[in-house]
Amino acid sequence: MCRIIAIANQxxxxxxSSTSINLAASLxxxxxxxxxxxxxxQSNTTSSFPVSDNEDCTFTIDLYNYEKNSIRPxxxxxxxxxxxxxxxNLANLEIxxxxxxGTHHELKHSIEDIKxxxxxxxxxxxxxxxxxxxxxxxxxxxxLIPVQCEFYALxxxxxxxxxxxxxxxxxNRNLDIEGVLITMYDKxxxxxxxxxxxxxxxxxxxxxxxxxxxxxxxxxAQSHRKTVIDYDASSKGALNYLALATEIIDNNKNDEMSNxxxxxxxxxxxxxxxxxxxxxxxxxxxxxxxxxxxxxxxSKNYEKLIGLSKKDINSxxxxxxxxxxxxxxxxxxxxxxxxxxxxYLYIYFTEDKVEKYExxxxxxxxxx
Length: 368
Hints:
By secondary structure, this protein is of the alpha/beta class.
């Protein structure tokens, strides 16, 4: 029986396309007939395969114009893996479509025509909760949510859960949560384990045991238009995605979660959202000291930075592209870009300790 998994998160840069590509390839390697669909108008997944706009195959836009027995997926070099790419016409669909929850029936008929040919259909949804994403959620069996291991990991995520609940209550009562997948984990960063713990506290049994580590091989593979398994099967990235595929297969064999238990878990999550559960409590748990807080906390309490070491600052603000030996570090604040806003935090060190800070616009001369 085919399982249709939509992979979505409206927050960009969480490893959504990488997960779609490499999970699909891993399922195929594990001898599961798999179809990958690029439902993202940005077409990142499509660019990872040697397929052109003139290819004689079905594109995602064609799924919205149902014709019986007309779907011809692109055959990839990976055995058991087929692919439906996207093109510019998919972006136009969002502009033209007005009935966001109605015309998914055409899409449903198209998928019904082919789903019995596959064990899994993996859908790479776009980084927004638009008509295209919601229409695929209306025909999916489950939603897989990749969450990057960073401070603002849960930012906006509860909106996705609210949309999920709306679709599940009104349009697709069989829609489940496949799982929450932690991506880009780096054990070298002090806050990583704290964030993992907090994500598990929020989502409990919905979190996959498998964690995708930060691994350059995944990016290298995509630049060569290959899956990470085809590029380097022994890499951490390949082994992580194979473990994820195995976990999904095992979970589907032994799926004991009832709709009632899922509903209860969802209600708890949505209740947390009302309480502004946005990982703000993570920063109280950072292994620096009990009084040091988060970037959110610092946004109104930058005086708390005074006296911290470079190591502390590097841990708190995650990846920094500053020269560690420089006495001036610059951080872009999490605000909408505006020349008139103070979008940058300058931190000045003396003997590796924060002496002062400044909120200002970016000044190129300071980092020459």
